[in-house]
Write the structure tokens for this entry.
Amino acid sequence: MPTFRAPRGTRDLLPPERAVFGRLEAVARDLSRRYGYREMETPLFEQAAVFERGIGEMTDVIEKELFRLVPRSEEGEVWALRPEATAGIVRGYVQHGMHTWPQPVKVSLIGPMFRYDRPQAGRYRQFWQWDVEAIGDPGPAIDAELIELGARFYREAGLDDVLLLLNSIGDTECRPAYVAELAAYFREHAVQLPDLERRRLETNPLRLLDSKDPSLAALQARAPRIVDRLCPACAEHFGAVRSHLDTLGIAYRLEPALVRGLDYYTRTAFEYYREGAEGQQQALGGGGRYDGLVQLLGGQPTPGIGFALGLDRVALNLQSSGLAEGQRPPLAVIVGAEPAATAERLKLATALRAEGLPVRADLSRRKLGRQLEGAARDGAHFAVIVAEGSENGALQLKDLQAGTQRPLAAVDLARELRRAESSHRHG
RNA sequence: GUGGCCUUAGCUCAAUCGGCAGAGCAGCGGAUUGUGGAUCCGCAGGUUGCGGGUUCGAUCCCCGCAGGCCACCCCA
């Protein structure tokens, strides 16, 4: 019963787990570089209106999950922690006149997002996303490029069995008519609808499509499908996206019920999905086109597309599949039981670190056997034994993996370790 | 936000019918005072999540709260 603990839905990332995140970030940054997306940052909080207007007042993310910050004075502004990255990035695009940059503006962002949800495994109130946006290109080729980028991330991160779900949800031309038709269809059968679903009929009929309520399954199966109601321009766009994906060899599953939870999406919508072991959150990432968002946030009409991938869920899947690796062990541990030689051990370790070598110094007063035990358990390749008389440079270099040991002069140590390190890396 | 299950040492878990709270791992220290990963011995570590109630007596039964998990809701 600790006095304090991390707030509900948040957690500390301790060294082993933080290392997994670090590796995911490295994969994401490398992919950003290769695909020409440049990293940026936005504030962790914005005026609440940025999210309310961008994401949509009626969405769950805004209606019940937004982390609002209460103003400290009457005239204070209402802020909110960001629940996703796109709205803030687009706000920045408009604010900084990025429409004058070469288009499209391709940016990425890695950082924490916040949603006031009820926590569960893989679902946190503070979670991390890698977000990628291409603003200013109407597609459809950029759609396929971006979708392929997301799929590649999972493979390079170590998850091979991530599915891609794909849909088009139309635009302002064709979606209103479709939504009306869908609402009419469900209204005909309103008696069969549970209360929650009946309310949605008025607020957001699209959501009825991906409700998991089993009593809706039959109705959903016979519901009109947006892909059959796309206007010619949207249909052509969607066809081209699919053909580009085929060209790239990207497999996907058409998912007519995929509608996404944010209002700003138009046309292309997609989700990365993995059948979890049990009860795990299965959506690993998702995204879509948002051709009206820039204008909605005060800019000129500008198309855009992006995705957000959940790093926590990828890490969780890696760990449950036993694919997460631990931290790299030190190359060598400097040991020695003579209190008189402690300064010598410290000095030696400092010199090796200055040479760029990862070494640990055992500065404890434990007996030598314990120190070697610790070094071996660290997974260190070598132990450097500093004994009495080492001041004049006589050391023992012990290969913990081979079990061999030989005397070595201090002046030769860095060179020896470096040589072993490089052959170890490539061997 | 709704419903359900769970909470004992740092971690994973025991504790018979309500009767003095235990083990493994991890940590620390030893094993004829200087050589290792799974050898042996020992030490330390607990207000049994928190607060009430029932009882001679509660880890155990009841209520509330908190946290975790599961299914919804929803999504990353």
Remarks:
- Chain A has a mean pLDDT of 88.
- The first helix of chain A runs from residue 15 to 35.
- The two ends of chain A are 48 Å apart (CA to CA).
- The CA atoms of residues 181 and 410 of chain A lie 82 Å apart.
